[in-house]
Structures are given as structure tokens and as C-alpha cells.
Amino acid sequence: MPVRGIRGAITVDNNTPEDIVQETRVLLKEMIEKNHIRKEDVCSIFFSVTLDLTSEFPALAARQLGFTDTPLLCLTEIPVPESLGKVVRILIHCNTKTSQKDMIHVYLKEAVSLRPDLSADS
Which is catalytic among the residues 18, 63, 82, 94? Predict the structure, then answer.
């Protein structure tokens, strides 16, 4: 079965553990639901945050949702001047028969501005 990538992003209002985990959970749930992903089909999940989000690892949200056997990795984004701040991005790698062009990428809140071409379904 092929491995596919699904992208998503969401903005966080405050640099608090509660906000980071809550917004990450919202985004991850929507990505999973829209793409009909089963936990056992997830190969790995990468989480990235902008440099202004430092109070918690967003991967904690995935652990709370039951991704206890899934490899998770948290990274920081390149600090490009004038780029959108307080953003959590997710890249899910999963086994699926769905074609890459049919994967539904999810951008929420102010993160819609990052990929307006992919945000119509979000």
C-alpha cells in the first residue's frame, strides 16, 4: 500500500501548553476525519511550530488522542521574516489506497492564508 502525505496548519492564540495542545488536537482530528485515516495506518507524524511557540510539544496532542505507538517528531520552522506567527503545522504519513491528489489538506484559522489554494475544503 502506498504511503501518502497529508499537510495541515493552524494558528494558536497564546503560547500556553493548553492552547498549543488544544489547537493541535483540533487540527489533527480534522485531518484524520476528512481523510478517513485509521490510527494503525499512520506511519509517522511530523509537527512543526514557529519560534514563538515554546511552552509545549504539539505531539502531546497526538499521544492524548491515542497515537502511542506512532513515531512523532517536533521541529521548529525556519524564521522567515514577515511570516505568519504562532503556527503549528502537521505532516501525516499514512498508508492508504487513496491517491495523493485526493488527500485533503487542512488549514484552519489564520493558517488558511498559508495555502489558500488548499484551504477551500477546510
Answer: 63
